[in-house]
């Protein structure tokens, strides 16, 4: 139970610190920031997968599965937003007659 409290405390602290830092980022830096959060989410997915390789309680397994699902959602969303933003910079071909 002590580990669960520690993990919840780290999660809450990282949420607050992350929100405070990201809310101060200028809009022109959002694309590089999205790449960084994709990398962090990939590390979160690996950590969640590693959590299933050791003996854990049911609550820890549920939190690990939730972490994997939310991080995967963030990675997929980040790649789709980055792809959409990159398409804005493609030159449009003139219509052929």
Q: In a nutshell, what does this entry contain?
A:
By secondary structure, this protein is mainly alpha-helical.
Low-confidence stretches: none
Largest sheet: none
Summing up helix and strand content along with how strands pair, one would put the structural category as mainly alpha
Report helical residue fraction.
over 70%
The total beta strand count reads: 0
What percent strand? under 5%
Number of helices: 3
Helix/strand order = HHH
Radius of gyration: 18 Å
**What distance separates the N and C termini?**
71 Å
- State mean pLDDT (0 to 100 scale): 81
* Oligomeric composition of the shown chains: single chain
Instruction: Give the overall silhouette.
Output: elongated
Care to describe what's here?
This protein is mainly alpha-helical. The chain has a domain at 32-88. 75% of the residues lie in helices and 0% in strands. It contains three helices and no strands. The protein has helices at 2-22, 30-51, 58-87. Helix 2 (30-51) runs antiparallel to helix 3 (58-87). The longest helix is centred in the last third of the chain and has 30 residues, at 58-87. The protein is elongated. The N and C termini lie far apart (71 Å). The mean pLDDT is 81.
